[in-house]
Specification:
With 129 residues, the chain is of the alpha+beta class. The protein has helices spanning 3-10, 14-30, 98-110; strands at residues 35-39, 42-47, 50-58, 61-66, 78-79, 86-90, 112-113, 127-128. The longest helix is centred in the first third of the chain and has 17 residues, at 14-30.
């Protein structure tokens, strides 16, 4: 696991650390071509420098955020922010079964909006193919 992500985990209470480590291990196993780092204060995975998925500690639990998640057509994901992101909140690893997490990660690879060039395009998102 990346050192900065391990350090992020080390700063969490035991139960939340357990949930985040579970997510990181699953994401790393599934997104083999992705790179990961702590970005804006929490772990994020990128494909070709485009943010795909990340998680952070929130009041509602651990927020699992998919940058293009509003395009996944998944009722379990809740819109987040003003662009195409959507989130899932976990209290425990059992809240999101591995098969469902794998399905969401598959969609995250297949359905992407170009966040990498958002500033260059002055806030306009374009869908990647």
């Amino acid at each position: 696991m990346q050192a900065d992500i391990a350090q992020y985990h080390a700063g969490l209470p035991a139960h939340e650390r357990h949930v985040c480590i579970h997510l990181a291990e699953h994401i790393n196993r599934y997104l083999l071509d992705a790179s990961a780092k702590v970005w804006h204060g929490h772990p994020v995975w990128f494909i070709e420098d485009n943010p795909i998925v990340g998680y952070s500690k929130q009041k509602q639990g651990i927020q699992l955020l998919f940058w293009s998640g509003q395009s996944f057509d998944e009722p379990s994901l809740k819109p987040e922010g003003k662009f195409k992101a959507a989130a899932y909140y976990l209290q425990d690893t059992a809240d999101l079964p591995s098969a469902e997490l794998s399905a969401l990660l598959k969609k995250a690879q297949e359905i992407q909006w170009d966040y990498k060039n958002l500033v260059k395009r002055k806030g306009i998102l374009e869908r990647l193919t």
